[in-house]
Amino acid sequence: MKLDSKIPEGHISQKWTDYKNHLKLVAPNNRPKIDIIVVGTGLAGASAAASLGEMGYNVKAFCFQDSPRRAHSIAAQGGINAAKNYQNDGDSIYRLFYDTIKGGDYRAREANVHRLAEVSGNIIDQCVAQGVPFARDYGGLLDNRSFGGTQVQRTFYAAGQTGQQLLLGAYSALSRQIGLGRVQMFNRHEMLDLVKVDGKARGIIARNLVTGEIERHSAHAVIIASGGYGNVYFLSTNAMGSNVTAGWKVHKQGAAFANPCFVQIHPTCIPVHGTNQSKLTLMSESLRNSGRIWVPKKKEDAEAIRAGKLKPTQIAEEDRDYYLERRYPAFGNLVPRDVASRAAKERCDAGFGIEANDTNEGVYLDFSTEIQNKGKQAAYAKGNHNPTPEEITALGKQWLEEKYGNLFTMYQKITDENPYETPMKIYPAVHYTMGGVWVDYNLQSTIPGCFVAGEANFSDHGANRLGASALMQGLADGYFVLPYTVSDYLADDIRTGKIPTNTAEFDEAEKRVKDSINFFLNNSGTKSVDHFHKKLGHIMWNKVGMGRNEQGLKEAIAEIAALKDEFYKDVFVPGSADELNPELEKALRVADFIELGQLMAMDALQRKESCGGHFREEYQDAEGETLRDDENFKFVGAWEYNGEDISKEILHKEELKYEFIKIAARNYK
Amino acid sequence: MAKSALLKSSLAKKYWMALTGLFLCLFLAGHLAGNLQLIFSDALHFNQYALFMTSNPAVKILSYLTYFSILFHAVDGFLLTYQNVKARPIGYAKNNPSANSSFSSRNMAVLGTLILVFIVTHMVNFWAVMHFDKNMPLQSITVEVMGQKQELYVTTNGGYMPVSQVAKSYEEAMKTGAQTYIEHRTDFYNTQARVKIGEGYKDLHKITVAFFKDAKLGLIATVLYVIAMFVLAFHLLHGFSSAFQSLGLNHPKYTPAIKGFGKAFAIVVPLLFAIIPVYIHFFLK
Amino acid sequence: MSTAKNINITLKIWRQKNAKSKGSMETYKLDNVSTASSFLEMLDQLNEQLVNERKEPVAFDHDCREGICGMCSLYINGRAHGPDTGITTCQLHMRMFNDGDTIYVEPWRSRAFPVIKDLVVDRSAFDRIQQAGGFVSVNTSGNTIDANATPINKHDADKSFEAAACIGCGACVATCKNGSAMLFVGAKVSQYALLPQGKVEATQRVLNMVRQMDEEGFGNCTNTGACEIECPKGISLENIARMNREYLKASIK
């Protein structure tokens, strides 16, 4: 396997424009002769399907949910970055590009990231034109907020529901194309394999989740936009159905899988409450604009809190350790996610955690300072220059409610605690996966005709993703990159004609799928799928989580291999193949998660450095900061599938070149 | 498109419900004003009003509009309800609707049907009598002339006509030799010339009083009428402000006022209506 | 959480093999449910128990489990998304129930939402309504005017957002005694009607969306207001009024 990133020549600011100008086109009269499959209808998938449908291609879109509008992009809370410089604080395309590369700890491709920054402004224009109701100021213009890892306000938002509004915007564009008959939508369908003909991606095998029917769909190109694989940890902020199956099947058919160990652990989630917990809930990073993170300075205070003998409000100001402000004075509570997460883990590991769960993992996110500050401002703005403390507190709470009301309510519903009165408890949780299917500059995988977009690919976020940039990437890929690069690929297919589905290749792929389904349904096991999924998650979180070391990773690899055997031997899947069967769906997904988990541990083991979200305990400086090794590890680790035994996968390296950014140690102090 | 939209669509049906409903509210107000004369005025004035209501051409148009509104409101209501029932073929095993909606809002169809039954009964009792009853009495007054009681018909031009001298029909007049007889239920005719010499008032007042004071059925009628007004009150409690919502009139500033007025209207109008039969049955001498 | 305790409950759940078969309410006992669990975590626990007993687990729709995707449904003890307000079923916590409670769990009931299996219903009618007009007809080229070229009054933008916050879960239909979808359609119509971008096609949009809504077999709105109370996102009845207004305007044009 040869990795050709196809990065165009020229100055970074001209690469994309020049490249676009020389891509091949498909004339409008030829587009209806060409079929395209899009798997997934999140920001990347929906925007790609809508754009390609609008261009005139025959598009078939697939989602496993009951409607394309449910894709997990909908859950993104905080916002979307764009280099508009509306706030006049010195923002530019270059700065967004620079911040994203730096935020990714210098493990992303320059050219891809610059393109992302270039089209970021268009995304906002496009969304506003579609009727996405972004937050506005009293002058009627768009409002911005700041996010972790940056010093400008470039984040556009719609309360705490930005992902929802953007996805509904893309969904409306997709709906329009479905209504016009240019996109055929397959709800409650799951892609279970890729079909290759003559080495090219030419179709998929999908299961109708309602009837259980195994369907063959052919196309001239296949776009995978199926999201990330955070659920390999069982507990994550991902949706319950989020899975790696589409990406993993493509990998098994020959697409390289890049940087699987790069996982983002989000610092502000609600801590784990118990063993029956099914998922973790994110509290928007935007809260770090107003909240201060702390744990008690004294261990005995932390113990007393956990025992329920002390309340956080009883801890005096001087007995609180605002550890982010202490360690990173320049960025304070707004350090990037990986830094904030690790700092929380460091404090909890040292015994200062405040949550009374099995692991004592939890820290405080405190709004009392903000209540006082904003309350005072609000009083002054009202002309009251001598406000009483009660007035200040009331006004401050009012300000918080306007800004974060829905988040605070959500927190209270889940935890039964009032965050206006007592600090929120938070702890990091698996949130996003930077790794994914390896793609070139065209977003094409190593299988010709198989494109991968959004979180499912690996391309833009390096080893750590900055807040508010996932939404940006999803829409950039779907609206502004794939329509060009997919057309370029399809220009050679105008004479191909319809791809038949009654061929040996389809027979073979369908047999693989049916065999797998029959195996699970006929397996005489004793344990539920969740039993194995939880076990996998346990191994992953403890050994391939926020802190990793050689010994743990080696153990993880062995334990996962053993778990895989046990899974196939002892899993019990009730029901039949020809009906809605959620247990069967889970079994097929978990089978892929187990294999991926092993690869993640292998990838983490080979990367003998700490960078971004990948923290190898052996590689840290005296202050516990990441120690990157640019000499030996400035590459994308792309794995090639090599048979059932995952430990046999072959690592390929794509060297990263930094021509326009001076590579440096990341410093947020 | 637009035309069928105004007739067939779910929203259009709602507009018609709202418009006819609001018109019927106006009708109720007018009807109440008239009926209150049963308490606050005398029989003559009431009957004069009744005549005006049955003969004035403008009122005629309004009355046709009212009949139409009642019919349309009912038919449209049945149609909507039929569709609504069809929209949920299988119901819930356990349902707790009182957690999110008021009794009246959930039972508009039942309340409306009861009101329709009431309207039909009410029209048979009074409207039909007024319009078609051959034996409808005419308004008369009793005066004492030289220590003797004498009954006089009151004519619309302000004159009087002794009851004893008026025959019920021409045939009777021919037999008894009465100077005057009644033609077309209300017209006084001269027997010789057979020309109209005056007109009487239909005595709706008398009919009404007799109806509620009836020894056998008066109490039952009174109670049933009061119950009917309760039903009307609940129907209005939801219907009045709901009509504004259906027409798209929902405004953060004005809607609370509309709702407040609607509630007051729903309580006051049926209450005053209900007082009338109670007053007649129990207090009218 | 230190305040969490375990309770034992009885569940009465609608079981239906598939769209064609007849279903019925079945009774299950479930012990040791933590009050810190969400309602769906409780159902996970039941399913785990059923799988261990080699019985078929209960099928129910769910995905994000943080109240935003709109996939979860369930009519719990006679109310859409259960006894709490302002939340979806996935945000409902077992602390709302007591030890020994009997809890009824049923699917959304509407002709337009046929049951697929157990508690899973088909809500694609909502998609079709959206496809009939729930969009602004702009191409996705990105060659539109600058996002700040048209200032939009903050009040309208906020109102538009509040309408757009609808998650399309169908609780409005489920709770409405008439099975009416007007809160859903009203919210979509309102979102666009309040923005200059959406005004261009306002006439066609409202006519087409209402036509599709009627064809799907939803009931009519009788303004009971139940939908507004049960809506997990607090979508206001104002949006239905706005749709009524828009439709009236469009019909007489």
UniProtKB/TrEMBL annotation, chain A:
<dbReference type="GO" id="GO:0005886">
    <property type="term" value="C:plasma membrane"/>
</dbReference>
<dbReference type="InterPro" id="IPR036188">
    <property type="entry name" value="FAD/NAD-bd_sf"/>
</dbReference>
<feature type="active site" description="Proton acceptor">
    <location>
        <position position="337"/>
    </location>
</feature>
<keyword id="KW-0274">FAD</keyword>
<protein>
    <recommendedName>
        <fullName>succinate dehydrogenase</fullName>
        <ecNumber>1.3.5.1</ecNumber>
    </recommendedName>
</protein>
<keyword id="KW-0285">Flavoprotein</keyword>
<feature type="domain" description="FAD-dependent oxidoreductase 2 FAD-binding">
    <location>
        <begin position="35"/>
        <end position="471"/>
    </location>
</feature>
<dbReference type="GO" id="GO:0008177">
    <property type="term" value="F:succinate dehydrogenase (quinone) activity"/>
</dbReference>
<dbReference type="GO" id="GO:0009061">
    <property type="term" value="P:anaerobic respiration"/>
</dbReference>
<dbReference type="InterPro" id="IPR037099">
    <property type="entry name" value="Fum_R/Succ_DH_flav-like_C_sf"/>
</dbReference>
<dbReference type="InterPro" id="IPR030664">
    <property type="entry name" value="SdhA/FrdA/AprA"/>
</dbReference>
<dbReference type="Pfam" id="PF00890">
    <property type="entry name" value="FAD_binding_2"/>
</dbReference>
<dbReference type="Pfam" id="PF02910">
    <property type="entry name" value="Succ_DH_flav_C"/>
</dbReference>
<comment type="similarity">
    <text>Belongs to the FAD-dependent oxidoreductase 2 family. FRD/SDH subfamily.</text>
</comment>
<dbReference type="InterPro" id="IPR011280">
    <property type="entry name" value="Succ_DH/Fum_Rdt_flav_su"/>
</dbReference>
From TrEMBL, chain B:
<protein>
    <submittedName>
        <fullName>Succinate dehydrogenase cytochrome b subunit</fullName>
    </submittedName>
</protein>
<feature type="transmembrane region" description="Helical">
    <location>
        <begin position="261"/>
        <end position="284"/>
    </location>
</feature>
<keyword id="KW-0472">Membrane</keyword>
<keyword id="KW-1133">Transmembrane helix</keyword>
<dbReference type="GO" id="GO:0016020">
    <property type="term" value="C:membrane"/>
</dbReference>
<dbReference type="InterPro" id="IPR034804">
    <property type="entry name" value="SQR/QFR_C/D"/>
</dbReference>
<feature type="transmembrane region" description="Helical">
    <location>
        <begin position="65"/>
        <end position="85"/>
    </location>
</feature>
<keyword id="KW-0812">Transmembrane</keyword>
<feature type="transmembrane region" description="Helical">
    <location>
        <begin position="106"/>
        <end position="128"/>
    </location>
</feature>
<feature type="transmembrane region" description="Helical">
    <location>
        <begin position="217"/>
        <end position="240"/>
    </location>
</feature>
Automatic annotation (TrEMBL), chain C:
<dbReference type="InterPro" id="IPR050573">
    <property type="entry name" value="SDH/FRD_Iron-Sulfur"/>
</dbReference>
<dbReference type="GO" id="GO:0009055">
    <property type="term" value="F:electron transfer activity"/>
</dbReference>
<dbReference type="GO" id="GO:0022904">
    <property type="term" value="P:respiratory electron transport chain"/>
</dbReference>
<dbReference type="InterPro" id="IPR025192">
    <property type="entry name" value="Succ_DH/fum_Rdtase_N"/>
</dbReference>
<protein>
    <submittedName>
        <fullName>Succinate dehydrogenase/fumarate reductase iron-sulfur subunit</fullName>
    </submittedName>
</protein>
<dbReference type="Pfam" id="PF13183">
    <property type="entry name" value="Fer4_8"/>
</dbReference>
<comment type="similarity">
    <text>Belongs to the succinate dehydrogenase/fumarate reductase iron-sulfur protein family.</text>
</comment>
<dbReference type="InterPro" id="IPR017896">
    <property type="entry name" value="4Fe4S_Fe-S-bd"/>
</dbReference>
<feature type="domain" description="4Fe-4S ferredoxin-type">
    <location>
        <begin position="157"/>
        <end position="187"/>
    </location>
</feature>
<dbReference type="InterPro" id="IPR006058">
    <property type="entry name" value="2Fe2S_fd_BS"/>
</dbReference>
<dbReference type="InterPro" id="IPR036010">
    <property type="entry name" value="2Fe-2S_ferredoxin-like_sf"/>
</dbReference>
<dbReference type="Pfam" id="PF13085">
    <property type="entry name" value="Fer2_3"/>
</dbReference>
<dbReference type="InterPro" id="IPR012675">
    <property type="entry name" value="Beta-grasp_dom_sf"/>
</dbReference>
<dbReference type="GO" id="GO:0009060">
    <property type="term" value="P:aerobic respiration"/>
</dbReference>
<dbReference type="InterPro" id="IPR009051">
    <property type="entry name" value="Helical_ferredxn"/>
</dbReference>
